[in-house]
Amino acid sequence: xxxxRSVSKQFPDGTLAVDxxxxxxxxxxxxVLVGSSGSGKTTLLRMINRMVDPSSGTIEIDGAxxxxxxxxxxxxxxxxxxQNSGLLPHRTVIDNVATVPLLRxxxxxxxxxxxxxxxxxxxxxxxxAARYPNQLxxxxxxxxxxxxxxxxxxxxxxMDEPFGAVDPIxxxxxxxxxxxxxxxxxxxxxxxxxxxxxAFLLGDQxxxxxxxxxxxxxxxxxxxxxxxxxDFVASFVGADRGKRALHVERRxxxxxxxxxxxxxxxxxxxxxxxxxTPDHRAPR
Amino acid sequence: MNLFxxxxxxxxxxxxxxxxxxxxVRLVEHLGFTVVAVSLAALIAVPFGFLIGHTGRGRGxxxxxxxxxxxxxxxxxxxxxxxxxxxxxGAPYVALTILAIPPIxxxxxxxxxxxxxxxxxxxxxxxxxxAQIMRTVEVPLGLPLLIAGIRSAxxxxxxxxxxxxxxxxxxxxxFLFAGLKTRDYAEMLGxxxxxxxxxxxxxxxxxxxxxxxxxxGVAAARPSVDRGRSARPxxxxxxxxxxxxx
Amino acid sequence: MTWIWSNLDxxxxxxxxxxxxxxxPLLLSFLFAVPLGWVANRYRISRGxxxxxxxxxxxxxxxPLFFVIPAVVGTSLRSPLxxxxxxxLYGVALMVRVVADGLASVDKDVRQSAVAVGYSGWSxxxxxxxxxxxxxxxxxxxxxxxxxxSLATVGAVIGAQSLGSLFTDGFxxxxxxxxxAGIVLTVVLALLLDxxxxxxxxxxLPWTRLASTSRRALRAARxxxxxx
Lengths: 284, 246, 228
What we know:
The structure holds three protein chains of three kinds. Chain B has ten helices and no strands.
């Protein structure tokens, strides 16, 4: 469990990135911080592994104040995946994945064997192990990034817009992969994104942020969709534009779903067919 | 072309290969001097350069100092130091070590600065200590530019060491000044050709080394080396590294 | 100090000599480098050849070059022409790469949109590419100016008169003030030429004044090239 208690962060240039933020992130669940740029979501994420230290307030992991922990050691115990994968360009895929275990003193041979099996876990072919990051596609690089994040078998996995830089098809693929992984591993995942669809897809708990890290609403995706706390949230999730309020129209022999603007949103199909669509969220 | 034939004859004349003033001795002096001066400069400049590159502090000062040093004419510095410490190797060592520092310093810190910030950020986020970031990320990735800086410094020292024969009895430059004194153009030209060959050879060696030290994964990304607009800081574009004083 | 006051005429004469040696190479190297750089940027093969050649040329130490040039072109060792040729060669060696890089740095989209709105071949070069590369060229010229002024002093050891003569003369006669005066004048002259180029840039390239970040952008561009 990660707990923010009245956390604020003012940067040296005077910007108040986070203002009195309090939140509990339950263990073994995915919490998604979603907001536009300037909402302080990345700052919040980076406070968890002390890449950023709060100006005031405390953050606890399982009851222990992280301010008392040594930053380097703390970071080695937490998985971190970032947007541009951040892989070391001069190290092979396998060495990138094994970086942190090696830092923690795991013998080289063992670290490599484990890294290889992590490639399987994230759905990468082992033949890519000896390649350099620049020889991989963007999607493959992100998978390596995830494997690296998992390498120390951390309880906590921090993900900073990990799928932000890949094309929509690959992104959908990676999202499904993450859902599968999470159903197997059950990590405490903290995920940052500006994409509300992604937040609803991945999050058990979704936190919608306004400027300065102020919470607009916290809840499950369905809570938020059903009962947006205010106009800001409604606009953020698209409910105000009628994007989320669909009705059925009969056209050309099919049931078509249409939003309030008259834009086509999809077709109505039988529940069994819906189960088979890849978009369906695996129960956890 | 007669002049070149004479120079060639001078270079090939066995008589010029014996004794303390022979070509081999002068060549060893020249090279030895260069190695020592560049090593001394590197010993001073590399740690500072790494520190500046890693912390981002002191950069303004380094640039200003390098800029100031660059505008100072080598010959002026050489003769001035020679007046202070007397004729001999002391003055050239002091002057050339000083002149070799700015390009190496710049190579060291620009090498670090050229690294993608997200790579360093992610190295820190996965739990590398600052020393580990420096050792395993910044030094290997910054090495090509550091070597470029050392190359600039080396070529400059080779060139200026020739000039240093004006104030000290050593190196290939002696042939130039001796020839000048006795109006022996074959000797001047022959000596000049030797220095040029030495410089071009070193340039070639450094070009090779610079390619070798580009980390494999970084080289793999480059679509083509020759269109890659070269890993070395384009001459002129980085005045801090490329220095015009020969 | 007394030496300086009683030799102001000498200092002035040497400064003029120095200008005669260093200004022509600056202009000539620009004139030669632009077409060469254009060719280098235009074709892949010529780029390799020209840039390798200029790199090697730049690696040649100046003093030996002063001795080689008379043997090639038949000038006398002490003539200013000999030095002007050598300094021009260095200037060209430096500037060619700068011109090629400057032209290459012109945004492809800008070039293509110029073609699209109907610029023809030469007018693209004169009205789009050259002006856009101009800040880079100016930066290169400033480096050439400072290095040429500094290099010109070397000619003194073979007897070509310049501010460098103050070094050789001061060294032989043991007059420290003369050497220091020479160093100061050389630095001042370099700074003046540099300043003149900056001023020229302000007048000819007014749009660069707005973008004070252009230098940083240039740096960044170069840095990404290197790190890619």
